[in-house]
Amino acid sequence: MLKPRIYYTLGLWLLLPYVLFHLLWRARKQPEYLQHIGERFGFYAGRSDKPAIWLHTVSVGETRAAATLVQRLREQYPDHQILLTHTTPTGRAASEQLYGSDVIRVYLPYDYPFAVRRFLRHFQPRIGVLLETEIWFNLIHACHAADIPLQLLNARLSEKSAARYARFPNLIRAGLQELHLIAAQTEDDAMRLAKLGSRAVSVMGNLKFDIAPPANMLKLGARMRQMFGEQRPIFLAASTREGEETLLLDALQQAHLDNLLTVIVPRHPQRFDEVAALIEQHGLRMQRRSTNVAIAADTQVVLGDSMGEMFAYYAACDVAFIGGSLLPFGGQNLIEACAVGKPVFIGPHTYNFAQVTEFALACGAALRINNTDDLLLQLDALLHETKRLQQMGRDGERFVCDNRGATERAMAHVAASLNTSST
Questions:
Q1: Where does the pLDDT of residue 423 fall: very low under 50, low under 70, confident under 90, or very high at 90 and above?
Q2: Which of 9, 167, 318, 411 is most buried (CB neighbours < 10 A)?
């Protein structure tokens, strides 16, 4: 009987024309997708003479979540080279912004056997770390065959994703069992991974709790607040997704919140111009953050069209709504807003961050809203209750502080595998 991975690989070959079309399609809005195409098929240029510790951080969220782990790895293993792989240009750009030339960054190849073998031969990593929910069956098998310990750390798996994987039980079980180690964010994530066939899953917590707001971002946030208007109430809609901006703008057109300034920061930078056009279509007075000028008193909306400043946006606002949750995208990370001490609104769709969201709600750091009408009612009430607003901010800071420690547990897992690979 043919192994499930063979059928999986055959499916990938059948999808190859779509893969190439997808690159061209994405390049319409992000030309960076046409750069470094060779890397996506296992062709690389430079490498370090040092032994490599390899971390795969798909996009912006994972790249930023890895910041404390990367810092600790550089401190503890100065004789090793940190190799970061990405899938998206925005993840690669975030890596450049965060780590500069201290790391090697490339695209992870598509999961074709020849490509992943070339990647492993070229960089010869001592250890590999996949972050969050990256299960690539040929990559996992190639590492297993080459005796490279490959860990899945900070692992999260929603019920929705678990149900999809469960359709291919033999394939997912074989992949999970060839991983050297799995450490999940929560007990629920660990339980779902175990049900899919993982032999042993520990719980390490969430790396995102360990990220402290950078001092330079807090200073930038203070300057932003001056530019926005220190006496104006500032509402931030962070990491918004397709369709959510329209709902928010429709509501804002009807709102009567005195002197409110709304700052909208789309999740994907390629949508900046699209969202700007939406704001103009709604007849709302807008300025772009990228112009870096003081916000006029009659401006109603600021478009946050800058990269790498999310902590500063949180620091500059009074209340933050976390996008991806108003429509069924599964939500985004609310931990950064809580870490800055800002009250958080989240919508009904948070399945990607279910347990973290429930914890934030339970401790008073966040409020669930059902729709934009509900959001505006809650926002108006909170902006008029200064003590409650401040208490929610303190509750958020405590929520983050009480859940730190994942980086140290990740370091222990990495050290154990490095010791194994050197013997």
A1: low
A2: 318
| CB hemisphere CA count around 90 (13 angstroms) | 17
Does the residue 8 lie in any domain?
A: no
Q: Does some domain include residue 416?
A: yes
Q: Are residues 45 and 124 in the same domain?
A: yes
Question: Which residues on adjacent β-strands are paired with residue 155?
Answer: 184
Residue keyed to tokens 């430079």: 46
The CATH number covering residue 267 comes to 3.40.50.2000
Q: How many domains does the chain have?
A: 2
Catalytic residue selected from 32, 39, 62, 408: 62
> For the segment 289-303, what is each residue's pLDDT rounded down to a tens digit?
999 999 999 999 999
Active site residue 62: yes
**Band (419; pLDDT cuts 50, 70, 90):** confident
List, edge to edge, every strand of the sheet that includes 104-107: 104-107, 81-86, 52-56, 125-131, 150-155, 181-184, 201-203
Q: Is 270 part of any domain?
A: yes
Residue with tokens 């990938």: 12
Question: Are residue 334 and residue 356 in the same domain, yes or no?
Answer: yes
Q: For residue 421, what pLDDT is reported? A: 63
| Residue 19 located in a structural domain | no
* Residue whose entry in the numeric block shows the structure tokens 């005195």: 258
Q: Which domain holds residue 200?
A: 27-205+405-422
Cβ–Cβ under 8 Å, residues 61 and 334:
no
For 91, residues 6+ apart whose C-beta sits below 8 A from its C-beta are: 57, 58, 59, 60, 62, 63
Q: Which residue has the tokens 């056009």?
A: 277
| Same domain as 234, residue 329 | yes
Do 185 and 220 sit in the same domain of this protein? no
For residues 65 and 208, the answer to whether their CB atoms sit within 8 Å is yes
**CA Rg value for the chain:** 22
Q: Are 56 and 83 in contact (CB under 8 A)?
A: no
Tell me which long-range contacts 212-218 makes (C-beta under 8 A, separation of at least 24): 212/339, 213/311, 213/314, 213/315, 213/336, 213/339, 213/340, 214/311, 217/309, 217/311, 217/312, 217/315, 218/311, 218/312, 218/315, 218/340
Any alpha helices (H) in 81-232, and if so which ranges? 89-99, 113-123, 137-145, 159-165, 169-178, 187-195, 215-228
8 A C-beta contact, residue 113 and residue 9: yes
Same domain, 241 and 266: yes
Return the number of other C-beta atoms located less than 10 Å from residue 232's C-beta.
Answer: 16
Give CB contacts under 8 A, 24+ apart, made by 44-47: 44/106, 44/118, 44/119, 44/122, 44/123, 46/104, 47/104, 47/122, 47/123
Asked if residue 347 and residue 412 are part of one domain, the reply reads: no
Among left, alpha and beta (phi > 0; psi -120 to 50; other), residue 46 is beta
